[in-house]
Write a structure and sequence with these properties.
Length: 389
């Protein structure tokens, strides 16, 4: 019988205590704290993420039911919903942002060897946003439409490992392309975006910073073709052109040449037009990278289904940001565990297993590795069969 730690503290072992302590100390998170430390706040919110708890009362009742196990799971005191609500409302959310960013740096190092086109020397990112609908009565600070409230979660996803490396929360009235002013730009990296990010002035600033981009073109694009390159039409490619923008206003915003690629998807019978400033990769590789942009849509879907951000346990902006960043930290911590232990299961499977085993005393690798159950044939039955089969 395994006599070691429970699964929950084994998962927390992948989070160095020093990183958490530095984040707490930076923003004086434990100043004048008597009942609930920042570590216990993080553990309680992480427990809520892993076990799909959707309210403060839900968290309190479930943790009280296993109170005899809490000390060995890492908690240093009881969790009360009023104290947890005050912590989420008052403690600086940047503690959890810095913690999430530190974990993201670690995860990106682990997933840096994941395959991308060999001609691309640096990273590739997908940039997109998703809307989280809220109640206008409970969240009056986030008006969206006349009788609704909502916020936008802008995310930059590293396509090597699908790790979110940049997140911003804004109102729904903020244009998606405005995030190009805040996204950290890495020279030589490729940024893959949808049509909403087609702002020529901001794209030219990316170009001047030494970064590459690939974005869907608008339907009213006017251009002058400089030359065309041959393409293999059996792959769905229809054209690969070097162009200059023709409209006077757009040419003033982006005076350099662009690459225009046309692709026809035979399955959906849809035609796609892309523009970008990457001239070294083949057209087929660029189209393939654009399809990988859909990983961010799957990431949003996964997060909404498995992490508790559709139901917020606090109504203030600080509480919402706290919950989102702890949710992201939980996702990245599981991703680190998955790579460190070389687990072949998907993230969704790992999270489902953890949700029912976090208080069990079992080696975490044994819990997560796929076990093949074999039916055992009993021989020399001493007990007679009740039914004839």
């Amino acid at each position: 019988m395994f006599e070691g730690q429970m699964v929950f503290p084994q998962l927390l072992a992948f989070l160095p205590r020093r990183i958490l302590d530095n984040c707490v100390r930076r923003y004086h998170g434990n100043k004048r704290v008597r009942a609930l430390s920042c570590r216990d706040q993080f553990l309680a919110m992480m427990f809520a993420q892993l076990t799909a708890r959707e309210s403060l009362r839900d968290i309190e009742i479930c943790l009280t039911a296993v109170q005899s196990k809490l000390f060995h799971a890492g908690f240093r005191g009881p969790i009360k919903r009023s104290t947890l609500a005050d912590a989420n409302r008052l403690r600086d959310w940047r503690i959890w942002q810095d913690l999430g960013l530190a974990l993201i740096d670690r995860a990106r190092q682990l997933y840096a060897a994941d395959p991308l086109p060999s001609e691309l020397q640096t990273a590739a990112y997908a940039l997109d946003a998703t809307v989280l609908n809220l109640s206008l009565t409970l969240f009056p600070w986030a008006p969206s439409q006349r009788d609704k409230a909502a916020i936008k979660l802008h995310t930059l996803l590293d396509l090597q490992g699908n790790i979110p490396c940049f997140l911003r929360i804004s109102g729904t009235r903020t244009r998606d392309c405005a995030m190009l002013d805040e996204v950290p730009v890495e020279a030589g990296s490729l940024y893959v975006m949808d049509r909403d990010y087609n702002d020529y002035g901001r794209l030219h600033r990316l170009h001047q910073a030494g970064a590459f981009f690939l974005v869907r073109a608008k339907s009213n694009l006017t251009y002058r073709r400089q030359r065309s390159q041959t393409v293999d039409r059996t792959t769905g490619l229809r054209s690969d052109q070097i162009i200059l923008l023709k409209d006077r206003r757009t040419f003033r915003k982006y005076p350099d040449r662009l690459r225009r690629i046309t692709f026809f998807n035979a399955e959906t019978r849809r035609r796609f037009v892309f523009i970008g400033n990457q001239f070294l990769l083949s057209a087929a590789d660029l189209v393939e990278l654009y399809w990988r942009r859909w990983d961010i849509e799957l990431f949003f879907k996964w997060v909404k289904q498995h992490l508790r951000i559709k139901h917020f346990v606090g109504n203030t902006p600080n509480a919402v940001r706290t919950q989102i960043w702890i949710a992201v930290s939980t996702y990245v911590l599981v991703a680190i565990l998955r790579r460190e232990l070389r687990i072949e299961r998907t993230m969704s499977e790992i999270l489902q297993i953890l949700s029912v085993t976090i208080f069990e005393k079992t080696p975490i690798k044994t819990v997560l590795n796929e076990i093949q159950f074999q039916s055992q044939v009993r021989q020399n039955h001493k007990q007679l069969s009740l039914f004839d089969l």
